[in-house]
């Protein structure tokens, strides 16, 4: 159902990450506010090298940005739900644009299986969630059906050693 021409299709092929790049990513995933100096010290490179590597990771699209992890309930968004959508074939771009504009939408994924799209939303309460699903989502012409899965409790996982896949020690570099 993916359409050709998406930005990801036009990006240059990814450069291989070495152990230092992977260490930098682990540090920044754990603490996006870590200073260049702190990162450089922890990976045992100069500040200039750390700065250049982080900029390359940003330029290459490996690092997409820096953000805060939010406790949605404490931020007044106490109702959360995963919503599955079945959509008209070849309508992903149109639907994605409309979903991005929804208040409270925090994650959108085109997936395979029994449905086409998985959407995560956070709203102030169940009434707002109901309106979002019944009024906003179901009025999108390309949305054929929805299914709402209420989130009772959620836990953000801190990035650990398993978050970035390590290549086997004997792997050839990808060139």
Written overview of the protein:
The protein has helices at 7-10, 19-30, 36-43, 47-59, 92-100, 126-136; strands spanning 79-87, 105-110, 117-123, 143-151. It is 33% helix and 18% strand. With 175 residues, it is an alpha+beta fold. A hairpin with a 6-residue loop joins strand 2 (105-110) and strand 3. The protein has six helices and four strands, in the order H-H-H-H-E-H-E-E-H-E. Strands 2-3-1-4 form a four-stranded antiparallel beta sheet. Mean pLDDT is 86; it is low at 1-8. Helix 2 (19-30) crosses helix 3 and helix 3 packs across helix 4.
Topology:
Blueprint: H1 7-10, H2 19-30, H3 36-43, H4 47-59, E1 79-87, H5 92-100, E2 105-110, E3 117-123, H6 126-136, E4 143-151
Antiparallel strand pairs: 1-3, 1-4, 2-3
Helix pairs in contact: 2-3, 3-4
Largest sheet: 4 strands, antiparallel
SSE-based structural type? alpha+beta
What is the chain-wise order of helices and strands? HHHHEHEEHE
Within the largest sheet, what's the order of strands?
2-3-1-4
What is the helical fraction, as a range of percent?
Answer: 25-40%
């Amino acid at each position: 159902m993916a359409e050709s021409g998406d930005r990801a299709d036009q990006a240059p092929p990814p450069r291989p990450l070495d152990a230092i790049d992977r260490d930098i990513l682990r540090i920044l995933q754990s603490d996006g506010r870590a200073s260049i100096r702190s990162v450089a010290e922890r990976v045992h490179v100069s500040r200039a090298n750390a700065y250049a590597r982080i900029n390359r990771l940003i330029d290459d699209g490996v690092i997409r940005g820096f953000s805060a992890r939010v406790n949605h309930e404490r931020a007044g968004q106490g109702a959360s739900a995963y919503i599955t959508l079945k959509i008209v074939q070849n309508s992903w771009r149109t639907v994605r644009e409309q979903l991005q504009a929804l208040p409270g939408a925090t994650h959108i994924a085109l997936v395979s299986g029994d449905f086409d799209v998985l959407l995560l939303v956070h709203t102030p309460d169940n009434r707002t969630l109901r309106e979002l699903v019944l009024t906003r989502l179901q009025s999108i012409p390309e949305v054929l059906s929805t299914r709402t899965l209420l989130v009772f409790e959620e836990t953000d996982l801190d990035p650990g050693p398993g978050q970035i896949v390590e290549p086997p020690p004997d792997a050839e570099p990808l060139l």
